[in-house]
Amino acid sequence: MSPxxxxxxxxxxxxxxxxxxxxxxxxxxxxxxxxxxxxxxxxETSRFKHTCVTTGAVRESTGPIPDHEAALKAVAExxxxxxxxxxxxxxxxxxxxxxHGGQTFTAPTVxxxxxxxxxxxxxxxxxxxxxxNLVGIRTAMALRPDLPQVAVFDTAFHxxxxxxxxxYAIDVATADAYRIRRYGFHGTSHAYVSRATANLLGRAPEDxxxxxxxLGNGASASAVEKGRCVETSMGLTPLxxxxxGTRSGDLDPAVIFHLMxxxxxxxxxxxxxxxxxxxxxxxxxxxxMREIRRRxxxxxxxxxxxxxxxxxxxxxxxxxxxxxxxxxxxxxFTAGVGENASAVREAAVAGLELLGLExxxxxxxxxxxxxRLISPxxxxxAVAVVPTDEELEIATQTYALVGNYNA
Length: 407
Ligand code: AMP
Description:
With 407 residues, the protein is α/β, with parallel strands linked by helices. Helices cover 38% and strands 19% of the residues. It contains 15 helices and 14 strands.
């Protein structure tokens, strides 16, 4: 009798404050077997959508799911219905997205009590995300205590940033006492896209310098030198940097004192203003780039100004990162806006010929799910659209770590 094949499936769990996203992947070929989303956890109208890719079954339900524990149990039940349950011997590991790994976690890490304690210790710098991530991990560990569980950190890819980029110019003792520094986020996406861009150019990641523009509802840029991140636009929290769907990005910190002293606003009110009511939605009332483009086509000046502010900031970062890197081989657009909004790509690069950046109109207009070049053959710097795949990256990193563990 031939021996049972080594387990090769990885369940990726992304536990947010009121949601759980998941994907089950077969790491022999990266194929997705099932995926789903539980939303509005803790409300009466929680929503659950589960898709089994192998059978094509889609199951949706609405009804109260009180907490993350109940959500994960529901996920386990749905997977079981498709014979893909957590008890399957083919499951090699569970990979958890963890938003903040501070300076401690520079790579994916098999979770034990010490790791849990450290993720907990980091809650003050990620008060919205790390608690939800922890609940997801603890519940999954209770469901399968024997299975390796791996934390893949959003911040890890950025831990290679030099101190000159990672430190704010504030009093060092204060910064160190409160662990105030630039950590960066979207790290799995920047890692995946910078590698995939090198691939697209037919070169090794260690041979190329890439600027990655992750433009989704949250947005961040990174400068990746020979496969290592040397600068990124998000900081202590995901609020710094580019104009985003609902976040302001860069701001004179004195705006906050002004709102407190003159506007009489509380810390929480300002937090909500800058994280939820700013960016594109604050500027024009919409945070969906499709809607903004539609309004611009109808001559809406407010939408046009919002778009111009978004592009202006993006250009500043592209220029700055060209200066940080010195030599740039490629600029890669990714995430919802970067992958789909040709107008954003065109406007972001317009007028940057001096930096070697150009976009070919016909190539830019092509819609595709594949990584592709949109710069003309004569362009000195490759401009690319490279769809991101954070779940695949988390699964790949998880499997790379536990492959030996299971062998
Ligand atoms: P993400 O956070 O990566 O899922 O990106 C979500 C955002 O992508 C949405 O808020 C939209 O602004 C944008 N988006 C998605 N599809 C399109 C599209 N076809 N054209 C322009 N923007 C899009």
